[in-house]
Design brief:
flat, nucleus, RNA_pol_Rpc34-like, two-stranded antiparallel sheet, transcription, alpha+beta, three-stranded antiparallel beta sheet, Arc Repressor Mutant, subunit A, about 150 residues
């Protein structure tokens, strides 16, 4: 490749990769910043979160709205944040009706919204692979990262 050309982000991995390796430290810092913004204002829009990240100067590069959305979606998948639509009333008063926004689920994923029972509170209760899980199989409690994280709690 010619020296004056820069490889595309599809090849390099974009902002999330450094020298071909996933930059988990950078991602975790951004996740923390996003979570703090949402927690601080109770309900936040993607634009508000992106502006807060930009103003905080936590990263040397300017993140796109799509990149900030990827970080927020990771928080949703980690059950630390939930995606909701604004009703325009109460805590949503400053957000237009129907606009997608984000709320924290308790304090760093613990507490907050009431659970439906004991089963959803353990990883096995909501695991889509439970039918394949066996004590000595490839998918097992011994190899389950979620189960280990839950036990460390």
């Amino acid at each position: 490749m010619s020296a004056e050309f820069e490889p595309s982000s599809e090849i390099t991995g974009g902002a999330w990769y450094v020298e071909g390796s996933l930059d988990t430290e950078f991602i975790n810092v951004l996740k923390e910043q996003c979570w703090r913004k949402i927690y601080g204002v109770k309900v936040a829009t993607l634009e508000g979160i992106a502006d807060a990240i930009k103003r905080s100067n936590v990263c040397q590069i300017e993140l796109t709205k799509q990149q900030v959305e990827e970080i927020v979606k990771a928080l949703v998948l980690d059950n630390e944040v939930m995606e909701v639509k604004s009703t325009g009333t109460g805590e949503f008063a400053s957000i237009p009706v129907g606009k997608v926004c984000y709320k924290c689920i308790g304090k760093r994923g613990y507490g907050g919204e009431p659970k439906l029972g004991a089963l959803p509170s353990i990883p096995c209760g909501v695991c889509p692979q439970i039918s394949r899980c066996t004590p000595d199989g490839i998918i097992s409690p011994n190899t389950c990262a979620y189960y280990q994280k839950w036990l460390d709690f």
